[in-house]
TrEMBL record:
Annotated signal sequence range: 1-19
Keywords of this entry: Signal
Annotated protein name in UniProt: Peptidase M15C domain-containing protein
Lineage: Bacteria, Pseudomonadati, Bacteroidota, Bacteroidia, Bacteroidales
Gene Ontology terms, MF aspect: peptidase activity
UniProt xrefs under InterPro entries: Peptidase_M15C (IPR039561), Zn_M74/Hedgehog-like (IPR009045)
Source taxon at top rank: Bacteria
CDD domains cross-referenced by the UniProt entry: L-Ala-D-Glu_peptidase_like
Location of the Peptidase M15C domain: 142-226
Length: 227
């Protein structure tokens, strides 16, 4: 566990990092100056080491220089402010900073935002833990096509509650992550559900992203991408 203390203007905050969660404790207002804590930077050596052989595989065709390391604040499911990190393509870095600032201001609950490398770049494991993530050099599940996540131009939000639902020829459905089946019936009302009335949908739409929940072949309710 490591603790970093920040003293900026009148706000004093501490960020506590554990293996799978980062909590931010404020001694003044819970509402922090958003521009200070929402940053996009080139991929540092330290971050690249975490990614190599995981999300950034040996055959990755996306130059490291086109990717950005983003830090954001967000509210967790426990209502506390947390620090999150993402890797995305430089083309959507400003979009993500603005969207996550708006989500933060609205106290929108996102359980965790960690690099998928913390899950060995295993998408199913990341989704099982309801981890919000972006860049991962991989194919679309069950296909040979490279996913938009490979370019860092797609993001999955609260994936456990917003699973990917595929109808199979035999009439049954395949759900990813598997434990997200309870949330595959979108006519039901439940917490953390992304639909057309949800702020996440509205913000990504405003920034020119396509929502996987609007696709016809399969429904990927966690997924937003920008071409
Ligand atoms: Zn996705």
């Amino acid at each position: 566990m490591k603790t970093i203390l920040f003293a900026l203007s009148l706000s004093f905050i501490s960020i506590t990092t554990t293996a799978h969660q980062t909590n931010v404790n404020t001694t003044t207002s819970q509402h922090l100056n958003t521009s200070t804590y929402f940053t996009a930077e080139p991929i540092s050596e330290a971050v690249f080491k975490r990614m190599q052989g995981k999300s950034y595989k040996a055959n990755c065709t996306i130059p490291r220089t086109e990717l950005r390391y983003i830090r954001v604040l967000h509210y967790g499911f426990d209502g506390k402010v947390k620090s999150g990190e993402l890797v995305c393509h430089q083309d959507i870095a400003d979009d993500l900073i603005e969207i996550f600032q708006e989500l933060y201001k609205a106290h929108y609950p996102i359980e965790r935002i960690q690099l998928i490398d913390d899950y060995n770049a295993d998408d199913e494991q990341s989704m099982l833990h309801n981890n919000t993530s972006c860049f991962n050099y991989r194919r679309v599940s069950g296909s040979k096509t490279l996913s938009y996540h490979s370019q860092g131009k797609a993001i999955d939000i609260n994936p456990l509650y917003n699973p990917c639902v595929k109808r199979l020829r035999n009439g049954s459905t395949s759900v990813s992550p598997k434990t997200g089946r309870a949330y595959s019936n979108r006519s039901k009302t439940f917490k953390y559900k992304i639909d057309h009335n949800d702020l996440v949908y509205k913000l990504f739409k405003k920034h020119g992203f396509t929502w996987g929940g609007d696709w016809k072949s399969l429904k990927d309710y966690q997924h937003f991408e920008k071409k």
